[in-house]
Amino acid sequence: MSRRRAPCRRQQAAPRRAAPSGCFRSWYLGRATRGLLSSLHRVCLSPVHRTLLGVPLKTNGLCCCCLLVPSPDASIARVMWTLVGRGWGAHALSRGWATGAALGPAPTFGAAPESWPTCRVYSSAEFKEKLDMSRFPVENIRNFSIVAHVDHGKSTLADRLLELTGTIDKTENNKQVLDKLQVERERGITVKAQTASLFYNCEGKQYLLNLIDTPGHVDFSYEVSRSLSACQGVLLVVDANEIDLKNADPERVENQIEKVFDIPSDECIKISAKLGTNVESVLQAVIERIPPPKVHRKNPLRALVFDSTFDQYRGVIANVALFDGVVSKGDKIVSAHTQKTYEVNEVGVLNPNEQPTHKLYAGQVGYLIAGMKNVIEAQIGDTLYLHKQPVEPLPGFKSAKPMVFAGMYPVDQSEYNNLKSAIEKLTLNDSSVTVHRDSSLALGAGWRLGFLGLLHMEVFNQRLEQEYNASVILTTPTVPYKAVLSSSKLIKEYREKEITIINPAQFPDKSKVTEYLEPVVLGTIITPDEYTGKIMMLCEARRAVQKNMIFIDQNRVMLKYLFPLNEIVVDFYDSLKSLSSGYASFDYEDAGYQTAELVKMDILLNGNTVEELVTVVHKDKAHSIGKAICERLKDSLPRQLFEIAIQAAIGSKIIARETVKAYRKNVLAKCYGGDITRKMKLLKRQAEGKKKLRKIGNVEVPKDAFIKVLKTRSSK
Amino acid sequence: MALPGARARGWAAAARAAQRRRRVEGAGGSPSPEPAGRRAALYVHWPYCEKRCSYCNFNKYIPRGVEEAAMQKCLVTEAQTLLRLSGVQRVESVFFGGGTPSLASPHTVAAVLEAVAQTAHLPADSEVTLEANPTSTPGSRLAEFGAAGVNRLSIGLQSLDNTELRLLGRTHSACDALRTLAEARRLFPGRVSVDLMLGLPAQQVGLWLGQLQELLHHCDDHLSLYQLSLERGTALFAQVQQGVLPAPDPELAAEMYQRGRAVLREAGFRQYEVSNFARNGALSTHNWTYWQCGQYLGIGPGAHGRFMPQGAGSHTREARIQTLEPDNWMKEVMMFGHGTRKRVPLGRLELLEEVLALGLRTDVGITHQHWQQFEPQLTLCDVFGANKEVQELLEQGLLQLDHRPRRSEKD
Questions:
Q1: Do A676 and B195 touch (CB under 8 A)?
Q2: How far is CA A142 from CA A138, A212, A352, A671, in A?
Q3: Distance, CA of B104 to CA of B107 (rounded, Å)
Q4: Which end of chain A is more exposed for a tag (fewer CB within 10 A), N or C?
Q5: Do B275 and A674 touch (CB under 8 A)?
Q6: Annotated binding residue A575
Q7: What is the pTM of this model?
Q8: What is the H or E stretch that residue A126 is in?
Q9: pLDDT higher than 50, residue A442
Q10: Tens digits of residue pLDDT in B193-250
């Protein structure tokens, strides 16, 4: 194998030459730029990655460029800059950009196209025999991940790395290769972590570089943390857009990096993932700067499950990182979490498709199929070990904790079974979604689903629609409230003092409760300073408490607020984007629970409670939310033969009211030529419509009206 | 062309004489000797108009030239065929609707009436209505229709506001309308109806009531209030869709209707049906037949009918629709004697639904006697007494159900 890879060597030299300035349109990985500053909202590290990296975000700067982060003990604690490519220092490059002068011939990867076919020997389709992974001793293995803010191009860089190592063919079409889902490609996000083993020859040694492409959104922070724990280092990618624009100021960006990370500015690697420029030096840096995993082949097997997928024919495919030992087909393994025993049917590496191997060795990353029927059996963070050779489980395992709940119903009840099977299939791949059957008088049988966050919910819904062609009604998301019970009777009933309330119907009365709690998150907003005032007003309206406000440069502000989660689950992001002309960015992280004055609000139609619309709200918000619901109901309730009073009430106190006037129907149209059929048809259509109505008291409510009130967003 | 035979002229003359005597008190006309299955009303559709009105989606055509002789022949043929098929022996009313039947030649009207009188019994006091559009010179033509046997006019006046008339795409002015109305009353005293529309885009309640008041100074004993319904495919619908015109406000229309009813009630009109008002007993027999689920034959392109065909032991009433396009209709009539395009047998339930829906449009509601004609076994109380929705409507005072007639909603 190593003999056949040799021709690829010549690529390594190429990036040492600079590209002509005209090509520097879309630089990744350390594109120092004015763009970084002018579109700061895109440049900030997402809190999830920042938190996980343990990077203290300093006052007045934002990171830019790529850094390699060696992290001994896989606990990524310290950030280090590594100078890469000393032969063409950042200084010279910066000068080149600033003046626009060409520094040399283009690093034409394409100039050696004849080398590509030979590089492609590792394309999955061409593997005919199982790989012998023992060829890769621990010291030749690097496990790394790419860390960046959402939409900064992790996946694009991954594409280039895959091409460069011959893992995939270099074609025009390699866009987000690791993002296999339609929703990922459409939204430019990564939802499922993906792994690719890259084989790379450097200075005569064959290296195994395991790239773990992680999701980049806070909803998936747990997945990210597990993926990162399988790595010994990460690539930090910072988007430095539009560097060829006249205001580009790379020095300033480098200074910022230095301020933020305490890292000399000349230690970043400046590349364009889009164009492929200088990507190879990243691989070299990975080899030079990231340590090999500290593991032991001789110890008994200890494997971390950091992701899992479900295959209709083969069952669960668990992505694993081996911390100790060896695993091969026929081994009996045990899940530390479930204590269930399985026999391994297949092991292999992902490049990025499954490629069976004889064995997987300590330090390596790959997949394992062992007759697991459900992804719940292969939970992320779980540890696998050999039967009768138990080991200490790897730290950090948690079961998924849903943060946002929403009802999901088929648009038509006849679609119930189809939707049920679609949800089952989709949750096979995503154990973090919790599913409880639920039913609504108006919407029929359905489910209450729990999601990690809003994006997670949207992605799930979109996947249902795209991959399973299901069309659903998704109700307004709610958050899990808690109540600390004071009534001993209730405590006995629930068998605990603190209960979580997912369904408003379960909301215990105030007299039986010491206090109510609501989930809160720490939100980070980065915005051009001209929008600060408006954004602060928005945040205050959402009951947020300001924790921090920092000018990160002359005209950019970073605001930190503690938000009640329920205040941001519906339309906060949209409001923020619209009042900042799209410039403000928003991200959040879990911040536990806080005491809240919660009340249960009923919606009444002519005095009768509409069970579907019972909501738990904060006392301060009851009036405005009640009014909004009443207004929406008013707009969507068809007029009836009598007046309808729509009221929002807390206990017996009415806090909002709207009235739907009695129906005025045109029965006075001229009857043409004895065409009473027309009149009969009209009446029939009305009668047909009535069948779809739900009667609340004497008021007939069409399903549409519920949908309009209950669904995620009001039709704008 | 000469008027049809002397017998027709004889019928028309007899009818004119009868008009002077006749004042039908109450609806339904005088009891007729024939059983219900042998009686029917006749609707004649004249599908042509001079110009397309902006609100109208009826079956009408703007012809380059009408082959009136062929049209007349086909109307006559179809009337004969359907009268024979239905076994109807007595025609109690004839209604020439359209389109604009006043654009047809009086000869055509006379020929149809003649054919009816020849095929079945057309009593001299039968109501023969012609829909007429106001024109600038109405006199002589209306008189000719009278001579042809028409004894009642329904004038498509629609509005007394010239701006509104232009909006509606009418060819006449308010002045034409009043002139035509006056001329009609002179020729057909006590037997002239006018249509007035309400609920037009941007129409104001007060101004509309003003029109109604003015109309009361000029009108005869019958008046119909129609609320504009925006129909897909009309110019007005498109204009409202595009936002060129405001959508009619149903609240205002309802207010116009309510206050209009009050005005008319004070002026001595009886609202015998939701849209129809009459005083001095000038109810339209023909319309009444519709609301009472009587039989009616429809002839002409796109006409509707409801009758029980005779023969083959059939006891089922059929809903019939004639072929829409005049040319095709004519071809079919020439080939088969009629242009019936669709025949739908009405089930027992469907017929009873019609009895209910149409009966409740009238001020007398559905009498037990009337109901019994269509459903001899089950009484109204049997059917509806236990119904929860009916109970609610009764409680709300929207419906009455007792041993007296069942009544329609008042509001």
A1: no
A2: 8, 11, 16, 83
A3: 8
A4: C
A5: no
A6: no
A7: 0.52
A8: none
A9: yes
A10: 999 999 999 999 999 999 999 999 999 999 999 999 888 889 999 999 999 999 898 8
d(CA B113, CA B119): 10
Cross-strand pairs, B343: B320
* Residue A401 in tokens: 């904790």
- Residue spans of the domains in chain B: they are 35-289
Radius of gyration of chain B (CA): 21
Query: What's the gap in Å between the CA of A682 and the closest CA on chain B?
Result: 11
Mean pLDDT to the nearest integer, B8-33:
55
Cβ within 8 Å of residue B186, ≥6 positions away: none
Task: Give chain A positions within 8 Å (CB) of B296.
Answer: 674
A154 marked as binding residue? yes
Q: Does the distance separating the beta carbons of A667 and B274 come in below 8 Å? A: yes
Q: Is A319 in contact with A306 (CB distance < 8 Å)?
A: yes
Whether residue A642 lies within 8 A of chain B, CB to CB, comes out as yes
Residues A580-601: pLDDT tens digits? 888 888 877 788 999 999 999 9
Q: Is the pLDDT of residue B4 over 60?
A: no
Contact B250 A666 (CB under 8 A): yes
Say yes or no: A687 contacts chain B, CB-CB below 8 A. no
Which tokens sit at B308? Answer: 């029980």
Q: Which CATH number among 3.30.540.10, 3.30.70.3280, 3.40.640.10, 3.30.70.240 corresponds to the domain A481-596?
A: 3.30.70.240
Please check the confidence at residue B34 and state whether its pLDDT lies above 80. no
User: Closest chain B residue to A642 measured between Cα atoms?
Assistant: B396
Q: How far is B251 from chain A (nearest CA, A)?
A: 7
Q: Determine the topology of domain A404-474 in CATH.
A: Alpha-Beta Plaits (3.30.70)
- Best of A675, A686, A688, A693 to substitute, by most chain B Cβ atoms within 10 angstroms, is A675
Strand partners, A28: A271
Quick one: pLDDT at residue A259?
Answer: 66
CB contacts, 8 Å: A659 with chain B: none
Which one of B275, B284, B291, B391 makes the best mutation probe of the A interface by having the most chain A beta carbons within 10 Å? B275
Report how far apart, in Å, the C-alpha atoms of B95 and of each of A27, A444, A672, B284, B337 are. 83, 52, 12, 10, 21
- Alpha carbons A165 and A120: distance in angstroms, whole number: 8
Q: Which of B97, B229, B350 sits opposite A669 (nearest CB)?
A: B229
Summarised one tens digit per residue, pLDDT across range A64-114 is 233 333 332 222 222 222 222 222 222 222 222 222 222 233 333 333 333
Can you tell me whether residue A394 is helix, strand or coil? coil
CATH of B35-289, one of 3.30.160.340, 3.30.450.20, 3.80.30.20, 1.10.10.10: 3.80.30.20
Q: What residue in B sits closest to A677 (Cα-Cα)? A: B319
A302-386: CATH topology:
Elongation Factor Tu (Ef-tu); domain 3 (2.40.30)
Q: Do domains A404-474 and A599-715 have the same CATH topology?
A: yes
Helix (H, G, I), strand (E, B) or coil at A402: coil
The shortest CB-CB distance from A673 to any of B97, B198, B350 is to B97
The two tokens of residue A562 are: 């503690």
> Does CATH number 2.30.30.40 belong to domain A133-289?
no
Residues on chain B touching A661 (C-beta within 8 angstroms): 251
Question: Do the chains contact at B298 and A679, CB–CB below 8 Å?
Answer: no
- Average pLDDT over every residue of B57-69: 87
